[in-house]
Structure formats: C-alpha cells, structure tokens
Q: What sequence folds into this?
C-alpha cells in the first residue's frame, strides 16, 4: 500500500575517462534497485585526452546527456580516473597522542619521496586498514580543479567526489557481497577498462589493497596467452604483496565486476592461473531495467564495456 514511500532516486554517477564518459542514474522502487537512465559516448580519436578541446567535448557531452529528459536532477557523484590517482600502501605511522593533523603530517612525511608530484600541490587521503596498514591515495589539486570546472560548466552540481577503490567496494557490497558469509570473506575485485585493470582486494567494506594495472580490454581482447600471462603475473604480484602486509587475509575468490567487458573465456583463464574460484559480476544483471526503450546505450545481452564505476558512483 505504501510502496511509493520506498521509491528513491540516487544522484547521477559520472565516470569520466580519457576515451569515454559514462553516466548512470539508479533508484529504488520498493522491490530493489532499478536503472533509471544511462548514457555513454566515446571521445573522438582525434581529440587529445586532457586537452582544452577534450574538456570542451566533455562539457558538451554532459550537457547533452543530462538535458534530454532521461536523467532526473543535476546532482552528480564523481571520481578522479584511476590513471590520475597515486596509491601507496604503508604501515601506520607511530604517533603519540595523535590527532588528525599530526597523523596527516606523519603520513605525508612517510610517502613524500614516493609521490610523482609535489606534496604542496596535491590532495592526500588515507584509509586505515588491518594489521596497522594504511592505504594512501593522492592526486594533484589541479586535476581535481579541472574536473570540478567541467561539471560546473555543464551546469551540474557535485554532491560528492570519491576515489575508485571505494566505488568498486560499494558495487561489491550492494550487489555481490550480500550473504552473511561475505562479511568476513576476502575477495579480489577486477574491473577491466580499455586501458587498465583496476584491482581492489577487500574484506566486505574494508579496503585492504588497491592498484591500477596498465593492461586493459584493448590488449586482452586479442586473447593471446602472452598478454593474459602478463596480467596474471601482475595480479600474482598483488597477491604476494597482500600476503606480506596482512597475517589473516587469504583471498577466497575473484569477481570480475566489469561484467561482459571482458570475454568469459579470458576471465576463466585468468582465474585458473590465479588458482582462485571466480565469477562474473554483471551490474546490468543486478538491477531492474524497467524500459530499455528509454535507456539509450544499454545492451544487456552484449555490453562490451564496464559500467561498474558509474553504477558504484550513483549508489554513493
């Protein structure tokens, strides 16, 4: 009788990459999560990523997509692309009677020499993990300012700005980690984009490890054993690093949360080499799509790129 009270519309999740932009807006209808609107567009090949021309293209694309009536409202959640984020894993600094300011100073002191950019021109966040470990995430302030300017000129309002590891964990928790046994399970999440594979290892909501590997569907789509083994070696190195950091963090399974972006046979070949149980986590299969005719750019049966980040952002 009161199902309408359970209806809720989430903000628009915007996944901006150099080669494409994806937008997703999710909601609830009393029975579960429903896809309200989605849109995507590839950047023309003759436009250099990050250039002034690219920024103008991004602004026009966002305006066009959000003004055509499919999307509700102007509030968006976004994340800095993985390729523009620095991630480091450290042991928690020992700071007596520390407050947030002292802890930040201690973290900066520990990673200062490893940063690929100046500390003074960056924004640094850190996430406490298990066994006195810490995941440090940083990016240049000018890059954040550039994306904020894009959204402002597209007449959109930023509700929050997140980082891709927490976005992927959000997808896992909402859709693929809902059993009681999942609360303590350590899983490896793999999101394969055209130019990279983003890796997150987590224990339910707790981030343990994150890394972006510069090998994506563009290379893996060839299906050659050499390329697949290169990725397997990188993933094996991630597993080895995890083992050195945590006493009780044995990975139980792998979830390919990029859905059909990567051929199923390639996914299974990777899982076999990693010696881990695996399954494909398809965001599109996890939500209700009420009217495919109104949702341009969605092909549920043959979707060859990942919607994971955009879905995760909308759910924040």
A:
């Amino acid at each position: 009788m009161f199902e309408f009270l359970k209806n809720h519309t989430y903000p628009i999740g915007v996944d901006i990459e150099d080669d494409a932009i994806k937008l997703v807006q999710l909601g609830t209808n009393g029975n579960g999560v429903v896809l309200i609107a989605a849109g995507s567009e590839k950047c023309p090949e003759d436009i250099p990523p990050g250039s002034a021309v690219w920024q103008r293209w991004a602004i026009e694309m966002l305006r066009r997509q959000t003004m055509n009536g499919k999307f509700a409202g102007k509030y968006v959640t976004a994340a800095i692309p993985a390729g523009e984020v620095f991630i480091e894993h450290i042991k928690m600094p020992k700071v007596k009677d520390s407050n947030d300011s002292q802890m930040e100073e201690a973290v900066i002191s520990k990673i200062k020499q490893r940063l690929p950019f100046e500390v003074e021109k960056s924004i640094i966040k850190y996430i406490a993990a298990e066994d006195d470990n810490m995941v440090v995430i940083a990016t240049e302030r000018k890059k954040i300012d550039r994306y904020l300017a894009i959204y402002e000129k597209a007449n959109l309002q930023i509700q929050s700005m997140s980082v891709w590891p927490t976005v992927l964990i959000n997808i896992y928790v909402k859709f693929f980690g809902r059993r009681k046994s999942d609360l303590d399970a350590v899983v490896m999440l793999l999101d394969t984009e055209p130019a990279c594979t983003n890796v997150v290892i987590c224990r339910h909501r707790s981030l343990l490890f994150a890394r972006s590997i510069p090998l994506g569907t563009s290379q893996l789509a060839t299906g050659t054993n050499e390329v697949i083994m290169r990725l397997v070696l990188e993933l094996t190195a991630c597993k080895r690093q995890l083992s050195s950091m945590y006493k009780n963090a044995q990975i139980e399974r792998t979830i390919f949360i990029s859905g059909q972006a990567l051929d199923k046979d390639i996914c299974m070949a990777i899982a076999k080499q990693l010696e881990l149980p695996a399954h494909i986590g398809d965001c599109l299969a996890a939500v209700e799509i009420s009217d495919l005719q109104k949702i341009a750019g969605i092909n549920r049966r043959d979707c060859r790129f990942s919607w994971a980040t955009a879905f995760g952002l909308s759910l924040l």
Summary: The CA atoms of residues 43 and 57 lie 8 Å apart. The domain at 178-281 is CATH 3.30.420.40 (Nucleotidyltransferase; domain 5).
